[in-house]
Amino acid sequence: MKKTDALIIGAGPTGLFTAHQLKLIGLDCEIVDNLDKVGGQCIELYPDKPIYDIPAVPECTGEELTNNLLNQLKPFDIKFHLSERVEEVKKEDNDWLVKTSSGNSFLTPNVIIAGGVGSFEPRKFSPKDCEKFENKSLFYSVKDKNIFKGKTVSIFGGGDSALDWAIELSKESKVNLIHRRDEFRGAQATVDKMHELKEAGKINLFTKYQMTNPHGEQTLESIDIKHDNNEIKNLKTEYVLGFFGLIMQLGPIANWGLNLNKKTIEVDTEKFETNQKGIYAVGDICNYPGKLKLILSGFHEGALAARACFKLARPDEKYRFEFTTTSTNLLKRLGKKE
Amino acid sequence: MAKITYITSDNQTHTVEVQNGLTVMEGAVQNDIPGIDADCGGGMACATCHVYVKDDWFNRIPKKEDGEDDMLDMAFEPKTNSRLSCQIIVSDELDGLEVNIPSKQA
To answer: ipTM of this predicted complex?
Structure first.
């Protein structure tokens, strides 16, 4: 079990800046995120889209913002736990015991939820029957591409993941690519490459089709796909891959005894504390009168929550407000002074 | 001002008056009509305010802008008459609009 002054759930911009604020005032912290990389929605939803409303940054992309925040964290030693989802938060005496999906556990007086709109999960096929094939012959990500060698693989989706895998697997498998419309939203070069392979007979392309039914007892044998004009086709296939992007789900957060309002968590505007002492919510996931879902609001909320953490992490010390321009203490922590 | 009818997947009909300038999504959320999550708050950055627009209305409302179809790829059971309700801005011309809410958003 790891002990830390504060545990941050979510490595998006708000979580990253909150870590900065905690370390600056002399607290240690660790960050858990369900994604395999830092950046949250900025990286997952709009890495290339410019953002124009970060104060003093006239224009930057989601990826640049994330990199800048990571740069700002360089003076500090912060442990990231990626591809891990926090499953459980339980009271243990005066601390919170936090357990993750990878079996890590943390004991901390402060838990800061900077979880955006929850954790990213793959969007799944809507027919219920698809569930029984999940992780056997139907997947939402590729862990080992060798299993597809010499087999028929039906790939659904219109973005880069679907296109990249269709192109890659067409080398050694029979590939069906199925998408609900004619336009693909992947990179143009990738779309062109896919069309080339289609012309060469390496990829069977079905557009304006969607999955209606998988067939098979234990193992998948075929699938039915339906055209916009209701025509149904049956495709023999051994594997199915679905790439419909990621959706955000509140997930286990709903079970931690917090005051929820739809998918947001009610907090006060002094400490950004929830109805549970020592659990805070900042960024898009928190709610209070006048809440704006802007990155700049998340920065403010994180800065205040970090100060509130100090009280619980250092009950015998007094927090003193200082500026980075003048404080020797802060400059030492930032590595600017011996 | 326009009267907008939201039909949930269990066939409950909710007709409400929505002010001009609001979106069809906001009309649903402000009137506590179930089934529209609008996780991103109207930014066309998720697909959880997905609705089906009745065929006779589909061609009368303002067309989809760039990016809306990309998001709809990620919606639950998209159809040819799918729209993101946060992208439909209410005006007098929309009086009588009917939209169906899918059985789920996520």
So the answer is: 0.80
